[in-house]
UniProtKB/TrEMBL annotation:
This is proline dehydrogenase. Keywords: FAD, Flavoprotein, Nucleotide-binding, Oxidoreductase, Proline metabolism. Residues 46-298 form the Proline dehydrogenase domain. Pathway: Amino-acid degradation; L-proline degradation into L-glutamate; L-glutamate from L-proline: step 1/2. Pfam families: Pro_dh. The keyword Nucleotide-binding applies.
Amino acid sequence: MELLMRNMFQSLGKSRTANRLAKKYGLRFGAARFVAGETIQQSIDAVRGLNQDGRVATLDHLGEFVFSEAEALESTDMCIQTLDAIAKSGVTSNLSLKMTSLGLDISRDLCVSNMRRILDRALMYGNFVRIDMEDYAHCQISLDIYRELRKDYDNVGIVIQAYLFRTMQDMDDLHELGANLRLVKGAYKESPQVAFPEKSAVDDNYKKIIQKHLLNGHYTAIASHDEAIINFTKDFAKKNGISGEQFEFQMLYGICEELQKQLVKEGYRVRIYVPYGVDWFGYFMRRLAERPANVWFVLKNMFK
């Protein structure tokens, strides 16, 4: 049943029709728990609340269904406006983005041009931009563009997914760049030809890449709500004399808040991924697919 539900939500997340309906009817039936709002100001207010109890953030203007150059430019402008709002408000947050929202599926050159505009603005503010990794079909081109951007920018990082077979080789390839990586398990539905189908294998590979990146001396963002992974990282860092300045824990807005606050009390840097915008449906569906507990929360909210 859990597998069927996961597949259903992942398929819905890719539906253009479902996405259009979601935009029409807004953040209802529990989505507001995981999405900070539809406007920049709502997202800034959410980050300010996180900052007040010691958590930092990364803001993401949601957008995955971009089919024209005009839409890609609009999404780029929203990223720049988000950086402007962070600087003006004084909140502690960087920016996350998906390159498909910047026109990656339309034109590689268009996407790179938009990325450069965003990175230039972030550089002006001394801020940092994280490229979210998407599905396997976008993996290689995302890494290629990242390597190109790193020739001119130090304020950009990318995401590596533990469930892909290729991940260890990708990390070896990125080692020379001293890449700032967010390490995740992976949230897309992928073929067993390219990804580990068993959770235990994904967990094992996740631990390996955490160890590898930390021992390589590069900054590491461990993005997980899995307490076993978090405790593994804490123990590994202590045993190997790795400073807390070299890594941070990242979690999603609205999930495991008590754990987030506990880690802050223990002295760890905790960054919360705060999504906002009208194009929230695909993101929301992946959150439901990841954890059955999220589904029950939404169902209870609907009946209320």
